[in-house]
Design a protein that fits this description.
Layout lengths: L1 E5 L3 H13 L3 E6 L2 H10 L1 E6 L5 E6 L1 E5 L4 H10 L2 E4 L6 H18 L4 E5 L6 H11 L4 H10 E2 L3 E4 L12 E3 L4 E5 L13 E3 L3 H24 L5 H4 L3 H22 L3 H15 L8 H4 L3 H4 L7 H9 L5 H10 L8 H13 L1 H9 L6 H14 L2
Parallel strand pairs: 1-2, 1-6, 2-5, 3-10, 6-7, 7-8, 11-12
Antiparallel strand pairs: 3-4, 9-11
The structure holds nicotinamide-adenine-dinucleotide (NAD) and D-Mannitol-1-phosphate (44H).
């Protein structure tokens, strides 16, 4: 069995590949980083090390790589022969991989290939659905699109495992021991179920619980860690002020999950404790810069900050902690992070309130926009 996986980065090598490998797949990684592709083709294997007291290593073999920019026709051929396509490139990159994916799925129709599923494993609500839309945009002919749809499943998914950036050399990956991969059964075309994956009939509560707890909590530590000039997540979570904010933020998003999806309070509390323990993992070295990366994406309307903030505001539930974290995201300023640089430039050119409106899609006279503005001022005056 062959799986094509787009994105040989942290989560691709450190999580998705482990599950695919343990289910007996050969893995073809598609990436744009030639050094990564060269190493995959030279070594054909790498190890995943678990960040825990007792060292444990998992060997991943039967892997190779293709560069989607320079080996497009090979990528199309490989998609045509594959049994599964998975993706973890980042939501902003999904439109860029759509043309080659569309060509590969079209090729499958021409050669009469078996049905296949395409699963995007990104931190976003509805990432596979978004990818499906980008692929559709690449197919002009309605009959071909109908053919692709009848032969291809596009299930949404939620993925959870902390995989920090790795050292520049080598393919080996250090990951936390925990992982969770949940796939929506609706939209699946293939019968095979992967060991290590949970299949659910309703995905939204799971993905929102994950995004608004793990990722909102993570963003809280990263942005407040940055404000407090702390480098790593494990260090920042030990800071009493940040810890208080983290607990406050999880309480707020927990309230939303409780009223919206009727998650049990006790169940959510246990989930919070488990997640805080994961953030505290001192065997992982995860800089606040990685976790805070792409603040424009993280501050967009449906993501981990504005998403819960607006929904809590609509329900008249307190959001003081979320407001503080959102404000801190506007202070994230990392030279290598283009989105943070762009936010700082926008603030200089157009002022804070207009920047808040532009980045979050809130209207400038929305009470939350003004409250975020006030929270930024408070952070600056601390
Ligand atoms: N790292 C984590 O802890 C984690 C956990 C859960 C989900 N995620 C999500 O997984 C996705 C990937 O995150 P990551 O941490 O692995 O990032 P990453 O930067 O380590 O990996 C992304 C990979 O995609 C490749 N890429 C970029 N453009 C491409 C293109 N056009 N075609 C093919 N490959 C391309 C990059 O070269 C890189 O190797 C993101 O959506 C992230 O939110 C990450
Ligand atoms: O990947 P991002 O940029 O959406 O978010 C950064 C981290 O919060 C994220 O990568 C977590 O490590 C991951 O989502 C844990 O499952």
């Amino acid at each position: 069995m062959l799986a094509v996986h787009f994105g040989a980065g942290n989560i691709g090598r450190g999580f998705i590949a482990e599950v695919l490998h343990s289910n007996g797949y050969e893995i073809c990684f598609i990436d744009v980083s030639q050094p990564l592709i060269d190493q995959l083709n030279e070594k054909r294997a790498y190890s995943i090390r678990l960040a825990q007291e007792e060292e444990e290593t998992i060997e991943i073999n039967n892997v190779y790589g293709l560069n989607s920019q320079t080996e497009e026709s090979k990528v199309i051929e490989t998609i045509a022969q594959a049994d599964l396509v998975t993706v973890s490139v980042g939501v902003n990159i999904l439109p860029l991989i759509a043309p080659v994916l569309a060509a590969g799925l079209k090729k499958r129709l021409e050669v009469g290939a078996r049905p296949i599923d395409v699963i995007a494993c990104e931190n976003a609500i509805g990432a596979t659905t978004a990818l499906k839309g980008h692929i559709k945009d690449q197919v002009d002919d309605a009959t071909i699109w109908e053919g692709i749809l009848s032969n291809t499943g596009f299930p949404d998914a939620a993925v959870d495992r902390i995989v920090p950036n790795q050292s520049r050399e080598g393919l080996d990956v250090m990951v936390e021991p925990f992982f969770e991969w949940v796939v929506h059964t609706e939209g699946l075309k293939i019968e095979k179920r992967l060991d290590g994956v949970s299949y659910v009939d309703e995905l939204t509560p799971y993905i929102e619980r994950k995004l608004y707890t793990v990722n909102t909590g993570h963003a809280c530590i990263a942005y407040l860690g940055f404000v407090h000039e702390i480098d790593s997540i494990a260090e920042a979570v030990k800071n009493p002020t940040i810890r208080r904010e983290l607990e406050g933020v999880l309480e707020e998003t927990g309230r939303l999950l409780e009223v919206k999806y009727h998650f049990e309070r006790e169940e959510l509390k246990a989930y919070h404790q488990k997640i805080i323990g994961r953030f505290e993992n001192s065997h992982l070295s995860d800089p606040v810069e990685r976790v805070g990366r792409n603040p424009m994406r993280k501050l967009s309307a449906n993501d981990r900050l504005i998403g819960p903030l607006v929904q809590l505001h609509e329900r008249k539930i307190n959001t003081q902690h979320l407001l503080k974290v959102t404000a801190a995201a506007f202070l994230f300023d990392v030279a290598q992070d283009e989105e943070s640089v762009q936010i700082q430039r926008l603030i200089k050119e157009r002022g804070l309130l207009e920047t808040i409106a532009e980045v979050t899609s809130l209207s400038p006279d929305h009470p939350l926009a003004e409250e975020i503005e006030r929270a930024v001022a408070e952070l600056l005056n601390q």
